[in-house]
Amino acid sequence: MILVTGGLGFIGSHTVRALTDAGEECVLLQRRTPQIPPHLADLPVHVAQADVADLDALLAVGRQYPITGIVHLAVALPWPVTDTDSVEATAGALDAFLNIVRAARTWGVRRVVTASTIGVYGFATEGALTEDVPIPLGHSHAIPTFKKITELLAGHLSDVTDVDIVNARISGTWGPGGHLPDPFFAAPSLAHAAARRGEPDLSGLIAPPHAEDALDLLYVKDTGRALALLQLADKLNHSTYNVASGRATSNTDVVTAINSVEPDFRCELPSAGDRPVSWLDITRLREDTGFEPRYDTAAAAADYIAWLRAGNQR
Questions:
Q1: Who is most buried in 9, 60, 203, 265, counting CB within 10 A?
Q2: Which of these, 39, 31, 112, lies nearest to 78 by C-alpha position?
Q3: Where does the NAD-dependent epimerase/dehydratase domain lie (predicted)?
Q4: Are residues 27 and 145 in the same domain?
């Protein structure tokens, strides 16, 4: 059985579906009510009530279920973090990560796949980003800063324990169950506007969007499948993998894709001129797991809008 922390969440629920499609049973960790949500009720899953910050409760899950692998997606660092709770929040997040490794050792788990982020590369880069490019050490945002720390810890702990800890640097992800608004990119807000045939509300982004703004955008069903492949691969040759589409997608590209579904959709974004464009190289992921994205931007937009128009909320 594969333990998935954050398995009831956005990326987590799609990872669970991909794991069960591959023939695995999953245990989903839930801090609150241990209930299987309706969208996962058709799958061979179990829900255990525990908090990764509570080592005793976490270890008890392994006494109830035979855990053979862990995909750690739970967001342990609250954001935004205020001055009054920043030290304790950071300590709690680190303890949660270490508890996952403690549990893996106790249960004899061979591999932990843990979520990192495209944000560790920084925001002033250009071209294809491979996993071995130097990572900027400066602080820009709480989430990529914490992910850099846990990547370093993962490397150290993989060397000194018998647990293989794999960092998955997940690119910008959109699709069913996702954040609205996503503060970092406009695609989800654009899809929602198209689904309701209305005007997009882009006020929730941390910066005003422009037509040329681009990032490596991956549909969440592909994200979940890539994480499942990393967990289930017989052999991995690296400790860090980009989980991405391997291409840059601009806001203009998203609008064009949406127009193939909803021809009357209009969104005129201002131009910012030439900007550096980067994307994540997925050679490692392809070679070691056979992963290829199944959804291009047009297919992703069509699937997401259809899901929203079927009465789903996000």
A1: 265
A2: 31
A3: 2-244
A4: yes
Average pLDDT over residues 149-170: 96
Q: DSSP string spanning 176-196?
A: TT--SS-SS-SHHHHHHHHHT
Task: Say which residues have a Cβ less than 8 Å from residue 189's Cβ, sequence separation at least 6.
Answer: 180, 181, 182, 200, 201, 202, 204, 205
Per-residue pLDDT at 241: 98
Q: What is the pLDDT of residue 78?
A: 58
The boundaries of the domain holding residue 203 are 176-216+246-309
Angstrom CA distances, 176 to 28, 170, 300, 305, stand at 19, 17, 10, 9
pLDDT tens, residue by residue, 264-287? 999 999 998 888 899 999 999 999
Give the pLDDT confidence score for residue 232 in this predicted structure.
98
Same domain, 144 and 48: yes
Query: pLDDT for 71-81, tens place per residue?
Result: 999 876 655 55
Q: Is residue 269 one of the residues assigned to a domain?
A: yes
Count of domains observed in the chain: 2
CATH number at residue 181: 3.90.25.10
Which residues lie closer than 8 Å to 27 by C-beta, 6 or more apart?
Answer: 1, 2, 3, 4, 7, 45, 46, 47, 48, 61, 65, 67
Task: Name residue, tokens 């030439």.
Answer: 274
> Which sign, positive or negative, has the C-alpha torsion 128, 135, 167, 47?
negative
Q: Is the CB of residue 267 less than 8 Å from the CB of residue 200? A: yes
Contacts of 107 (CB under 8 A, 6+ apart): 62, 67
CATH number for the domain harbouring residue 161: 3.40.50.720
pLDDT recorded at residue 260 = 94
